[in-house]
Each structure stands twice: as structure tokens, then as C-alpha cells.
Design brief:
By secondary structure, this protein is mainly alpha-helical. Helix content is 76%, strand content 0%. It is elongated, with a radius of gyration of 17 Å. The termini are far apart. 42% of the residues are buried. The model has no long low-confidence stretch (mean pLDDT 95).
């Protein structure tokens, strides 16, 4: 419960509602209140991280993803999100390392394969990037973004 007596779950749910309605700032505030009310609520940390990333606050998103991963270290979605955010901050080596962990946990996740390819391409590792994009398209034959990335690699 926060100071107003609202549970962390209800604050998180309200944040999701705001975010889905296009009110991302309000959603982020609810997620912040949710993690303050329950610092061990991994989903609220994840939602906060995603909101922060979408709002362009990549350092804060990185910290929130890392906190969520402290609570749920085997979450492929969290690893994928952190990898994307690290790559956007030009930490290509960090992104590749994190995304490889996600691939190890879920080798048939095409989105992770695609994001690994993006990070590898960003690090000028074209041959490895092409292999990751090919793997993504093998997993999901109609994965348009992966085909597009493959063409650019």
C-alpha cells in the first residue's frame, strides 16, 4: 500500500490503463508509486522500465530493468528489454551479452533473435547479425522486421 492506501497491484493496473490510453507520463507515475509501495514487485519495475524507455529516459529504464531482473533473473522479456535499451545507449557489448543470455533461455524467441541481430549489426558484426536475422525468420517465416533488418545488414 502506498501513503493513500492503494495497493501496489492496483497502482500498477492503473498505470497500465493510463499507458494503454496514451497517457504514458501518468502511467509512469503510477508505476513509480507501485514500486515505492512494494519494492519487490517485479512486474511494476518492468512496466516502469518500459514506460521510461518509451519516454526516452534510457538511463532510468536501464536501472528499472536491472532492478526487475534482480527480482526475476530468468525473465526473457526483461533481458530482451534491457538489451534493447543498452543498445540504444550505444552499449553494444552489454546489449549483446544480455541478449545472448535471453537466447540461451529461449532459443526459439524470434523477437530476441532479431534484437540480437540489431545489436550485432550496431557493433559492426555483420556476419553474426545476418545469422541472427536468419534464425529469426526461420522461427517466424512472416517476421517482416527481421527480413527488413536482414536486407540492411
Amino acid at each position: 500500500m502506498d501513503e493513500s492506501g492503494i495497493s501496489a497491484k492496483d497502482l500498477n493496473d492503473l498505470g497500465v490503463s493510463h499507458a494503454k490510453s496514451g497517457r504514458l507520463q501518468e502511467g509512469a507515475k503510477c508505476f513509480q508509486r507501485a514500486v515505492a509501495a512494494d519494492p519487490n514487485f517485479a512486474l511494476a519495475h518492468e512496466n516502469l522500465a518500459k514506460a521510461q524507455a518509451e519516454l526516452g529516459d534510457l538511463p532510468a529504464a536501464t536501472a528499472s530493468f536491472r532492478r526487475a531482473l534482480d527480482l526475476d533473473p530468468r525473465s526473457v522479456d526483461l533481458l530482451n528489454g534491457l538489451g534493447v535499451v543498452l543498445n540504444k545507449q550505444k552499449d553494444h557489448a552489454g546489449a549483446i551479452s544480455i541478449l545472448r543470455k535471453a537466447v540461451d533461455l529461449d532459443p526459439v524467441n524470434a523477437a530476441v533473435q532479431n534484437n540480437l541481430g540489431i545489436a550485432l549489426a550496431s557493433a559492426h558484426r555483420q556476419r553474426e547479425a545476418v545469422a541472427a536475422f536468419h534464425r529469426a525468420t526461420e522461427l517466424v517465416p512472416n517476421f517482416v522486421a527481421a527480413y527488413s533488418n536482414l536486407a540492411l545488414a
